[in-house]
Design a protein that fits this description.
Elements lengths: L4 E2 L2 E2 L6 H4 L8 E5 L5 H9 L4 E5 L3 H10 L6 E4 L2 E2 L4 E8 L5 E3 L2 H7 L3 H4 L3 E8 L1 H7 L5 E6 L5 H6 L9 E12 L3 H10 L2 E10 L7 E9 L13 E3 L3 H7 L7 E4 L16 E5 L2 E2 L4 E3 L14 E5 L8 H11 L2 E7 L14 H8 L3 H8 L3 E3 L16 H10 L5 E8 L2 E9 L2 H14 L17 E5 L14 H14 L3 E6 L10 E4 L11 H12 L10 E4 L6 H7 L5 E5 L14 E5 L2 H13 L5 E5 L20 E6 L6 H11 L3 E6 L5 H10 L5 E5 L3 H10 L2 E4 L9 H8 L4 E4 L4 H5 L3 E4 L2 E6 L2 E6 L3 H9 L7 H8 L4 H19 L1
Helix pairs in contact: 15-26, 19-24, 22-25
């Protein structure tokens, strides 16, 4: 089942039908379901008098009106039936009042407008119904280009009747325009979801006749399910600009069409320029320029070797139409569009041009002049085309490509200078496809596909598998995923080729690759095992010994060992970041594992030994951070305490709050809400007053750093058998000493960077960590805070430097080589 891709939602319901047929062609077929008296047909004919129309209307008198109105137009067929989910006869309600019509919502109508002047004029009679499939088959209609549905309450049932014609009569990009009542909008959206639809616009407004009633419009395209296919994961390309990337896709002498060229910025001052024909809807004074609308290219089929569409699709009214035209006139299409990483909230991607002008303190004309200083004349649409009308994520871009019939393409992400773009090389001509495939085979002995990206000499090809829960690097709170990122960057800097397997939105290192594994699942009450299994199904056929020298999984259930079971030649090591839930060890001769502290190694060895497994080899490697991203601030300490961690009962933020209240000093809580108990999360929220106790949920990395730099100390109150304690290292790197209970690895991580309170006698057991209380944690923490000022910020920083990213990467590098050499 496809996911509805929503590109725009508006709160004003203007008549989007005016734009529906803007790019229609003669011979296109329009199905008007609920045609009423033919008003919509008048609009369709205004844009294209040669469009073919099937008008379906259940009210007999309205059909007679249309027959008289369009008697001279042989392209219009009028059917006196109701489109429905099955062939049947039903009782409909006909009403007068503000417009004559039929409805299946009689109880809803009378509730919305109960006045007798309306309700006494509602009558009921039988109507013949049939599915759209049957109606169109009887008329020998085999394809549909436009469908309008306005049936006064039964729109979702009409859509139900579409299920039979998804593959036969709806072609790529069939447009729909559905009028809706708020009563059935949810059902309409559900049907569209089932029909693999892409929604462009949902517009809502108050009914002009019933003020309490909301009506609306849903506009988009159908995408037949059989068009969908499994796509190759996209990679990150770094080190070049989008202009350079475009140049890399072109061979000398190829004939180029630059669509939406503006002032020719892509090819200006290059050897390509003599082979370029530039078009734009605005007027520019550059060589080989033709003023032309991208929706309607005035060129014959296959006129060009390559068509360039660079940052244009997000501006145009109908991107699918633009893609189809480019496909028609060229053998190869090169596309770049900004991806979702560019749409930071402050950029207001959907603001109107007036709102943009107000925000920037400029007039619209000034913005246009700054953005397009070389334009000689602008298209007369009020500068609408110069502002973004949509934005893309991977799914919506693939959807538009599918709707345009473009199937042979390689999509990647291009990242540089803080910007990120989707880049697409779409091959239309089969001869060119074969040619490019041969180039890939000749230059790449692995089975990777797509553009060849050159890298420095690599020592190892490493696959790092993260979890399905957060992106790499994480946007807000996360520990494990941050370690995966720092390890990847550290290995990249050592010269290795690193491929990260992580959720959508993750990115690659400077010379590495990213393979996305689906949407991140950072909500509570999810089945972690099933989510990791789902992720395993994505990468299991991608990771092979031919592609990777070693695989390092950072998952919770070790699915990466399944890869080795299926292929013993694959080198696999698992890094475990917490307690085990495994009941058995993987059935391998030797299971290589990494523990992230000596404490965790002792527990790991004990856990598997007590279960009778002697095939587990565990190496202790400390986590590390990029020390360049942390520093001691000159800003004086503010005297407030700090807690950083998941807002989980095991991390004990409630104990930190008790300490602060007992001392009557301030406490800042930076907490991750990916937790195991919503009740406990809500308890912590209720304990925070916003003044003495401030809560920062899922705060950014920058916010966390600022608080660490100014805090009196970090309270590390965890009582879960902490396998490492990354926040302790981060705080110390910012010059903030740590006060902790002697939980897990706290003592070996802290050293001289803080005070460890001897609260527990602890013991690693086969079933977890066993703690015997020696001292009240509250009293111990309060006592330690009283003497924490004796530890200077620089002393804390010096201790943190033992846990650098570089040291971590070198330790993993050593382990990888030893595993690979042992397997030879």
């Amino acid at each position: 089942m496809a996911v509805i891709v929503l590109t725009k939602i508006e709160g004003i319901n203007r008549d989007y039908f005016e734009d529906f047929f803007k790019y229609s062609k003669s011979g296109d077929i329009y199905i008007d379901v609920g045609a009423y008296n033919g008003d919509s047909i008048d609009i369709a004919l205004k844009y294209n008098p040669n469009i073919k129309i099937i008008a379906i209307e259940p009210i007999k008198s309205m059909c007679e009106v249309m027959k008289a109105k369009f008697a001279q137009n042989t392209n219009i067929t009028i059917i006196n039936k109701a489109a429905w989910g099955s062939k049947t006869t039903l009782e409909f309600y006909e009403y007068d009042g503000w417009a004559k019509g039929l409805s299946t919502l009689q109880p809803g109508m009378t509730k919305l407008r109960p006045d007798p002047a309306f309700t006494q004029h509602i009558s009921k009679y039988s109507v013949e119904c049939d599915t759209l499939d049957n109606i169109l088959t009887e008329l020998n209609i085999n394809k549909v280009d436009y469908i309008k549905i306005d049936t006064e309450g039964s729109e979702e049932v009409v859509l139900e009747g579409l299920s039979a014609i998804r593959s036969s009569k709806i072609h790529e990009g069939t447009r729909f325009h559905i009028e809706s009542h708020i009563n059935n909008l949810e059902n309409i959206l559900q049907r569209l979801l089932e029909l693999s639809s892409k929604i462009d616009i949902i517009a809502l407004s108050r009914d002009c006749n019933i003020k309490e009633h909301v009506v609306g419009t849903v506009v988009g395209t159908f995408t037949p399910p059989e068009k969908k296919k499994e796509q190759q994961p996209i990679k990150i390309i770094t080190g070049i600009t989008r202009r350079q990337w475009i140049h890399q896709q072109i061979k000398p002498g190829e004939k180029i069409l630059d669509i939406g060229s503006a002032d020719g910025w892509i090819f200006k001052d290059t050897a390509f320029v003599t082979n370029v024909t530039s078009i734009d809807i605005d007027l520019y004074n550059i060589p080989n320029f033709i003023r032309m609308d991208a929706h309607d290219l005035k060129f014959t089929d296959n006129s060009f070797d390559i068509a360039i569409i660079a940052e244009i699709l997000e501006h145009v009214d109908d991107p699918v139409r633009v893609l189809k035209e480019a496909k028609r006139v060229s053998k190869n299409i090169i596309i770049t569009v900004p991806d979702e990483a560019n749409w930071a909230k402050e950029l207001f991607p959907y603001e109107t041009k007036e709102e943009s002008a107000k925000r920037r303190g400029l007039t619209v004309e000034q913005i246009v002049k700054v953005s397009n200083p070389n334009a000689k004349e602008f298209h007369p649409d009020g500068f609408k085309h110069l502002f973004h009308s949509s934005h893309y994520n991977e799914e919506s871009l693939r959807s538009d490509l599918d709707d345009a019939g473009i199937t042979n393409y390689e999509m990647n992400r291009l990242s540089y200078d803080g910007w990120s773009f989707f880049v697409v090389n779409a091959v239309i001509n089969k001869e060119k496809l074969d040619e490019q495939t041969n180039i890939v085979k000749q230059n790449d002995n692995s089975t990777r596909q797509g553009p060849i990206i050159t890298h420095p000499e690599k020592k190892l090809r490493i696959a790092l598998i993260s979890t399905p829960f957060f992106t790499v690097p994480p946007v807000g709170y996360s520990g494990l995923e941050q370690i995966v990122w720092d390890l990847a960057e550290g290995l990249d800097e050592l010269g290795h080729e690193v491929t990260i397997f992580a959720p959508d939105g993750s990115r690659a290192t400077k010379h590495g690759y990213i393979i996305h594994t689906g949407s991140s699942v950072n909500t509570v009450n999810v089945n972690w095992f099933e989510e990791e299994k789902r992720m395993y199904e994505i990468y299991k056929n991608i990771i092979t010994p031919e592609k990777y020298d070693i695989v390092n999984g950072h998952t919770w259930f070790g699915h990466e060992f399944m890869l080795k079971i299926g292929n013993p030649k694959l080198n696999v090591v698992h890094t475990h970041h917490g307690g085990y839930t495994w009941e058995t060890a993987p059935p391998l001769d030797k299971v290589e594992m990494v523990a992230i502290s000596k404490f965790m190694k002792a527990y790991t060895d004990n856990y598997f030994k007590n279960k009778g497994f002697n095939n587990v080899s565990c190496t202790a490697i400390y986590n590390g951070i990029d020390m360049r991203k942390y520093h001691v601030s000159d800003v004086p300490k503010n005297g407030r305490l700090l807690f950083v961690g998941r807002l989980s009962i095991f991390k004990k933020p409630d104990l930190a709050i008790e300490v602060a209240k007992k001392l009557n000093i301030g406490l800042d809580i930076v907490g991750g809400t990916f937790v195991d108990s919503l009740d406990y999360l809500n308890k912590i929220r209720s304990m925070c007053d916003g003044t003495q106790i401030k809560l920062y949920e899922d705060a950014s990395h920058d916010t966390k750093i600022k608080l660490m730099q100014t805090a009196k100390c970090l309270l590390f109150t965890s009582q879960m058998g902490e396998p490492f304690g990354l926040t302790m290292v981060e705080a110390m790197a910012c010059g903030s000493p740590v006060v902790a209970v002697n939980d897990g690895a706290a003592e070996e991580i802290m050293h001289e960077g803080g005070i460890v309170c001897e609260v527990f006698d602890k013991k690693a057991t086969v079933n977890g960590w066993q703690y015997n209380l020696k001292k009240n944690p509250l009293d111990a923490l309060i006592e330690a805070i009283g003497t924490i000022d004796k530890i200077s910020p620089q002393q804390a920083r010096n201790n943190a430097e033992k846990f650098s990213r570089e040291a971590m990467a070198k330790s993993y590098e050593k382990l990888y080589h030893s595993i690979i050499n042992a397997g030879k």
